[in-house]
């Protein structure tokens, strides 16, 4: 039996860019031997480790490019604390079939109820399934579009924002739109309509979007496109953050302190 030169084997793996196998060669071969794998099984085992490493790197890089504000996973979402959220419906969204069809998802509800957590989690699921994703807050998005409009590069900016298969727009409605912003937002929605998916989180019901955009006519046109192929999930309940403060007694203490100060000032 021919003796395999280890340095030559490492060099060959390096040349083939099989870096995961190269970096873990001894431990992988030892594990294959302990498990008494056949040659075919051992080859499949080595290849699976290589693919796992590449997927890990791809997900990490794509997540950075997506500009998520933090890392969240669906397994970390407290469905028991938010009974208005249907676990099965969220799991269905995690299959990303809606992204393949270019549909829209809206998460509506008060601040702190997990809307952004769900949005980021679904964005990461989309990346795992090889969809490119971009995350942006509504305020930042509007500022980007307004600047591009002012610079005469709006068409270029709209083209860039149309490239991701999934565009996540967070915190719509938290800040009022400036003049002309609704028209710019409408152009983006129109550009992506039935081509790329949009996921929006908002603290306002769709019935309030006329006041959010400052133009009921444009808001209706935006909603007409967003709601055509959509899933709307309304989340009810208390804020996670305030719930923790209540458990610690901080809100009660703060309320007592305010009452004491008001009494003293009377």
UniProtKB/TrEMBL annotation:
InterPro entries: AAA+_ATPase, DNAC/IstB-like, IstB, IstB_ATP-bd, P-loop_NTPase
Keywords from the named record: ATP-binding, Nucleotide-binding, Plasmid
SUPFAM superfamilies, per database record: P-loop containing nucleoside triphosphate hydrolases
Keyword ATP-binding: yes
Domain AAA+ ATPase intervals: 101-234
Pfam family, one: IstB_IS21
NCBIfam families xref list: IS21_help_AAA
PANTHER family: ATP-BINDING PROTEIN RV3427C IN INSERTION SEQUENCE-RELATED, CHROMOSOMAL REPLICATION INITIATOR PROTEIN DNAA
Similarity annotation: Belongs to the IS21/IS1162 putative ATP-binding protein family.
Protein name: IS21-like element ISSme2 family helper ATPase IstB
Encoding gene, per UniProt annotation: istB
């Amino acid at each position: 039996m021919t003796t395999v030169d280890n340095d030559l084997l490492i060099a060959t793996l390096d040349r083939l860019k099989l870096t995961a196998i190269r970096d873990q060669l001894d431990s992988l071969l030892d594990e294959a031997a302990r498990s008494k794998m056949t040659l075919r099984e051992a080859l499949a085992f080595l290849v699976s480790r290589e693919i796992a490493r590449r997927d890990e790197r791809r997900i990490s890089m794509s997540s950075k490019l997506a500009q998520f504000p933090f890392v969240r996973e669906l397994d970390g979402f407290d469905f028991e604390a938010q009974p208005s959220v249907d676990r099965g419906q969220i799991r269905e969204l995690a299959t990303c079939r809606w992204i393949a069809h270019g549909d829209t998802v809206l998460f509506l509800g008060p601040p702190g109820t997990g809307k952004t957590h769900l949005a980021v989690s679904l964005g990461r699921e989309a990346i795992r399934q090889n969809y490119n994703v971009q995350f942006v807050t509504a305020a930042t998005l509007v500022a980007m579009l307004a600047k591009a409009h002012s610079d005469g590069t709006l068409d270029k900016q709209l083209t860039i924002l149309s490239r991701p298969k999934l565009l996540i727009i967070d915190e719509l409605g938290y800040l009022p739109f400036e003049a002309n912003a609704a028209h710019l937002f409408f152009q983006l929605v129109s550009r992506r309509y039935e081509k790329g998916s949009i996921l929006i989180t908002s603290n306002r019901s769709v019935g309030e979007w006329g006041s959010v955009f400052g133009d009921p006519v444009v808001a209706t046109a935006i909603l007409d496109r967003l709601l055509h192929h959509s899933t709307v999930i309304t989340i009810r309940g208390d804020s996670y953050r305030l719930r923790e403060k209540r458990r610690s007694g901080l809100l009660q203490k703060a309320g007592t302190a305010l009452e004491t100060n008001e009494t003293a000032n009377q």
